[in-house]
Design brief:
Elements lengths: L13 H6 L27 H16 L12 H17 L6 E2 H11 L5 E2 L3 H6 L3 E5 L2 E5 L3 H12 L2 E5 L3 E7 L5 E10 L9 E7 L15 H7 L2 H8 L2 E7 L2 E11 L2 E9 L7 E7 L2 E6 L9 E8 L7 E2 L14 E7 L3 E7 L14 E6 L5 E6 L7 E7 L17 E10 L5 E10 L3 E7 L4 E3 L17 E6 L4
Parallel strand pairs: 2-15, 14-23, 21-25
Antiparallel strand pairs: 1-4, 3-4, 5-6, 6-7, 7-8, 9-10, 9-20, 10-11, 11-12, 12-13, 13-14, 16-17, 17-18, 18-19, 19-20, 21-22, 24-25
Helix pairs in contact: 2-3, 3-6
């Protein structure tokens, strides 16, 4: 397979996603499975197949070149798999995006005993994942996946079949003609219902053949551990990343601790925005951004979306500890050079993008010799899509004034929601949150909703920094 470009090479692990395609056993992955009923009636889609074939196809794509399903706990691998499911859905006549409800349910189906994992920030910054709000619904789009899905299903001839009623076997025909067999076990989860009533119970993957032997006296796992954010902040106190694409800096991320909480202060430069930049931050588990208004450029305040999920028992984890280590891809370390204070090397893997001549384009790394802390990461080196992240440690970092409110007494925002499921049953939700006095907490649900200041839904909600403690009433009842 040849690719002349990596889509927006500035994304950290998205090159993993956009080139890591596979396919599937007895039925093609690009078509919805059909079966014949015992009575000989017209062909119908079997419930088990309908509920698991899309997930199994996505898993075979997402886990190809990995040793076991535990890699799903990595944010890039998980969201890579969600992207392939979205492509499968689109290929079978569905939407070209996933909703917030779908991503919640899919994560539960793939990792049933795990909290939700947020999308890699670098995917969003780089454009491999687009998150939008339309008619009160959060949508996740994966540019590039659909085209790759079609190409690779043609190449690898995916086939799927059911074994013993609870397992899906996926057969991929690799480029060298060898068969790759994946077996995924599922069990019914009546609690979740809806689109994904089956959850993954086990996975058997084919043996991974590594293209390049590891040439370093350290491993990828050791690199990831050394570059966990908790470790780096313990050693250096601060971390700053300068991100550039095609020779032009497009953003900066600063990491530090405040009041014992891990914090991120980031800026993306954009000439089309007021002041030429957008600002965002994280304080512990609270992510937020500085809102701008086209009709009033002087009106700005911090805003943080709070998602009210169909599955309130599952909570997002922002995995701050992996914000740096996620820049280190899975693969084999090669071309190691000792530069005195640093090591430089490349990481190869079978799923990387190739240039127009089919030559693999590795990611180039420089790390500190003593601590293995990242000094720089370069994608698509030497091409017009070259992207570079440069890491500095221990210096004074700018928080852009995003965290001033955390030094003052916090205010309490209570969210009370009355929603209705697909059967018309009422779903009640009530929870209180503490946020700074200059931050809006904006509730977002899986349905189109209206926000009010009173229980009778007559006083529309309008934010102000002067509100103090307040309650937001949310309803999907219109009119």
């Amino acid at each position: 397979m040849k690719r002349t470009r990596i889509i927006l090479a500035l994304i950290i692990c998205a090159s993993l996603a956009l080139s890591c395609l596979a396919a599937c056993g007895k039925k093609p992955a690009g078509n919805e499975p059909e079966s014949t009923s015992q009575t000989g009636a017209a062909p119908q889609v079997n419930d088990f197949e309908k509920s698991t074939f899309g997930i199994s196809t996505a898993l075979s794509f997402g886990l190809r070149f990995f040793e076991d399903s535990s890699y799903l706990e990595n944010s890039s691998v998980l969201w890579n798999t969600l992207g392939w499911y979205c492509a499968y859905q689109q290929e079978n006549g569905g939407k070209d995006y996933l909703t917030r409800t779908q991503t919640d349910a899919l994560q539960h189906a793939l990792l049933p005993n795990h909290a939700n994992i947020s999308a890699p920030e670098n995917w969003i910054n780089g454009g491999s994942l687009i998150i939008s709000e339309t008619d009160g619904e959060t949508r996740y789009s994966f540019p590039g996946f659909s085209e790759d899905f079609k190409t690779m299903t043609d190449t690898l001839n995916p086939q799927l079949s059911v074994i013993d009623g609870n397992y899906v076997k996926v057969i991929l025909t690799a480029e060298d003609g060898k068969k790759e067999e994946y077996v995924f076990g599922f069990k019914k989860d009546d609690a979740i219902g809806g689109e994904f009533p089956y959850i993954l119970s086990n996975a058997e993957l084919p043996e991974v053949q590594t293209a390049v032997e590891n040439e370093a006296d350290f491993t990828v796992d050791e690199l990831k551990e050394a570059n966990s954010l908790s470790n780096l902040l313990d050693v250096y106190k601060t971390v700053s990343i300068s991100c550039s694409y095609a020779g032009k800096e497009f953003g900066v991320q600063n990491f530090f601790k405040k009041n014992g909480e891990i914090c991120v202060a980031g800026v993306n430069y954009d000439e089309g925005l007021p002041g030429g930049a957008s600002y965002y931050g994280t304080y512990g588990s609270r992510e937020f951004s500085l809102a701008h208004f086209e009709d009033d450029p002087e009106k700005t305040y911090l805003t943080s979306s709070e998602y009210i999920s169909l599955y309130p028992d599952y909570s997002d984890e922002y995995y701050l500890n992996e914000r740096i280590s996620q820049y280190i891809d899975f693969g084999s370390i090669a071309a190691v050079k000792d530069n005195g204070d640093t090591y430089s090397f490349e990481i190869y893997n079978d799923y990387y993008s190739t240039d127009e001549f089919g030559v693999q384009i590795p990611v180039k790394y420089v790390v500190d010799k003593g601590t293995l802390a990242l000094r720089s990461v370069t994608w698509s080196a030497g091409t017009e899509d070259e992207s570079v992240n440069v890491f500095t440690y221990g210096g004074k970092v700018d928080d852009y004034g995003l965290f001033d409110g955390w030094d003052r007494p916090l205010r309490t925002v209570r969210v009370v929601a009355e929603l209705h499921d697909e059967n018309g049953n009422t779903v009640d939700f009530s929870k209180s949150y503490e946020v700074p006095d200059n931050m809006e907490l904006y509730p977002v649900t899986y349905k189109v909703t209206n926000l009010y200041f009173n229980k009778g839904w007559t006083k529309p909600y309008k934010y102000s920094d002067k509100l103090g403690d307040y309650t937001i009433y949310v309803t999907d009842v219109m009119g």
